[in-house]
Amino acid sequence: MAIETFGFIDDLNAANPTATDNVSEGDDHLRGLKTTLKNTFPNVTGAITATETELNYVDGVTSNIQTQLANINTDLVNDTTPQLGGSLDLNGNAITGTGAIPSANLTGALPAISGAALTGVQPFPSGTKMVFAQAAAPTGWTQDITNNDKALRVVSGAGGGIGGTHGLSSPPSTSHTHTGPSHTHSTPSHSHTHTLSAGAHTLTTAQMPSHTHTYYGNAGVGSYLGEGYATDRGTTKTTSSTGGGGSHSHTLAGSITSGGSGTSGADGTGATSSAGPTAFAPQYVDVIVCSKD
User: Terminus of the chain with fewer CB atoms < 10 Å: N or C?
Assistant: First the structure.
């Protein structure tokens, strides 16, 4: 009978032994199978538990898997422009493809890592400006001292502009003075005319000033003159005083009119003052503007 050369599995002939082969050659076939298995799996010293499906995962592999993994690690370390979401190459220069890591590849919780040793990571481009409510610029930032003692104004248009006339801590005084201009008051020249007449009035004795009357007495005549009684002849006599010296009034009748033209004037200057508050102290929060290095 024909006995094939036993080396590896691909050397085995499935048609051997034939039905007409000598029984005495059976031991040759058994030893040949053992030799083939040991040559094919020289490093297997225990049971292989992988299924045919798991073993088929290496189908198509043409080089050492560990070497390939090491080359991929080298690519990630040496690549200066890595891109996510694409395929990895093995030349150590670039990772091809663009986009994001597929969500299907990010199952479970991501491991926590420290960013202290990260280099080349730039979440903010150089020159980015932000506001920080702290005493000094954080690491990697430089304080911008272009503006000082100014409030922050939020605008809906383009930012970065400046405006205003005074700082928050030095507002202008509101004290002020009102000054009146020199001026003239003019009134028309005028005159008054009237047509008035006093009414007649008869004085009563009470309204007359106090007074006396004198008289001359004739001999042989006895009579009352005024309030005195003459008893002497050929003499001058005086009556007793009469009249109260009281006041009296007259009624007026007529009208008064005015007319004419002209001016009269007065001029002058003057000033009044008014003092307002000089303090301006709005509530505020100190912030600094820093520029990314």
Answer: C
Residue 62, token pair as written in the block: 């043409």
pTM for this entry: 0.30
Residue 13 and residue 39 share a domain? yes
Domain count, the chain: 3
CB-facing half-sphere around the CA of 260: CA atoms within 13 A: 12
**Residues whose CB falls within 8 Å of the CB of residue 177, separated by 6 or more in sequence, listed in order:** 271, 272, 273, 274
- Segment 103-146, tens digit of pLDDT: 666 666 766 666 666 676 677 888 888 889 899 999 889 999 98
Cis peptide bond upstream of 125, omega within 30: no
Name the residue among 222, 253, 258 with its Cα closest to residue 237: 222
Domain that holds residue 83: 65-97
CA distances to 89, 106, 118 from 78, rounded to whole Å, are 12, 24, 14
